[in-house]
Amino acid sequence: MAEKTTMIGPSTLKVICRDRAVVSCARALEDPTQIQLLALSHTRSTSRSPMASIVTKGKPAQQLSSLLPPLVFGCAVFNSQYNDVNKLDTVGLVQEALEFGIRAFDTSPYYGPSEELLGAALDTEFVRSHVPRSDLFYITKCGRIAGDEFDYSPEWVRQSVARSLQRLRTDYLDIVYCHDVEFVSEDEVIGAIKELRRIRDEEGTLRYIGISGYPVPLLCSLAERVLRETGEPLDAVMSYANFTLQNTTLATNGIARLRAAGVDVVPNASPLGMGLLRRAGPPVAGQGDWHPAGPGVRAAVRRASDFCDRHGERLEVIAIRYALESWLTQGASVGSRGDPASGVPWTRESNQQVGGQKLGVSVMGVSNAGELEKTMSVWRSILDGLEGGEETVKLAGRWKRDHEWSQNRKHGVQIMADGIQEHLAEYLDFAWDSPGKDYVNKRAAKNLTAPEAEDAPWLTPAQSPQADQDLPEEISIALR
């Protein structure tokens, strides 16, 4: 095989390859993103085998809540629709995340090239040498193919899982969600859950199973039905935009029902409400103004943002810290005891640097090293303010009064949150329709079967908004 080198970093991708098949194919596609992924897939034949792992069949002996880290790296940003992947240093970003102690990564086939890029970033010499596969959590999804195409059939579920294993370069997936369950019938969801469990029990290529989506009542009713009809609860239910400054119904209306349905872990995603809770408003990019929030709630958010400006704060800063900090405690009963990435050496046997308690799980995405560093600064400041935070501060070598500072900051954030929620008025806890009234599953209408189905298109998920490109980097992520 001819020698070739693939460079993936912040500068323009350079592919030095004497294998003309790869180059000519990429040129034919005339897509720089496809060039990168072709090069990545082509180098697999010469890369080392994936990290050693143990494939086990059947339901895991340990509950997910005893293992999953409370901070999950959201990889929807690894997407050509709102990031130039030729300039996105996914390998460097994932390595830095690992150095910070992050061990869980959430992706989806629906997030364009995200699975491919994450798989390549986790299949490097650094990762193989420093992070055992057993310490990592590969989290992905199945069922959603495009904005208006879903396939929950057993055939497609099998095909999707097999493809994710290949793209992520792993022998097993730690968690697989049925993606955006509100867009299909409950019967289809139940069928997909049963197929995922069959794969778990007979093939051992996945371990924990859950559902994801937006409407809290539907997520709860589905979790209840799964338990009632199968006798086994879901391992996880991931909700997005339902525990934010604008909407806290995941806590007020969701936790009790999900716990009663036996759900082990409930991760909270999208603390900015899909980009709604920003001074600039929801992002508008290649997909146009896709955000489902209507003019009334947008106007209320603008008033809340003006309130923050008058008090020397930014809406984004308050929104991110409020959601991360509040969910740690309010979501603790459906949280986890995994590595919190506190900056202190951690073992599953102790977890003492955060008081030994479960912590609510949050999913947070970043696009560059600067955003990652700021996010981790905020996250660790929040951990410093928890019970046992004085010891965390000491062991991590941070300022001796960081525990006190964090608690004072929490008090200040709560005061601002109260004011913001007053300005939201009748739109506090407002939820938009998902799906919209005119939604039609085009895949069902076309009656496609799995063997005939095309590969997942490269589309940006509406659930994962565009990065804050209209803001300077230094203020795009909460600093406090």
UniProtKB/TrEMBL annotation:
Region (Disordered): 334-355, 450-480
GTP-binding found in the keyword field: no
Keyword list, A-Z: Oxidoreductase
Positions of the NADP-dependent oxidoreductase domain: 70-379
Domain of life the protein comes from: Eukaryota
One of the record's GO cellular component terms: cytosol
GO molecular function: D-arabinose 1-dehydrogenase [NAD(P)+] activity
Listed InterPro entries: AKR, Ara2-like, NAD(P)_OxRdtase_dom_sf, NADP_OxRdtase_dom
Keyword Membrane tagged: no
GO BP annotations listed: dehydro-D-arabinono-1,4-lactone biosynthetic process
Pfam families: Aldo_ket_red
PANTHER family: GH17980P-RELATED
Protein name, entry field: L-galactose dehydrogenase (L-GalDH)
Record organism: Aureobasidium pullulans
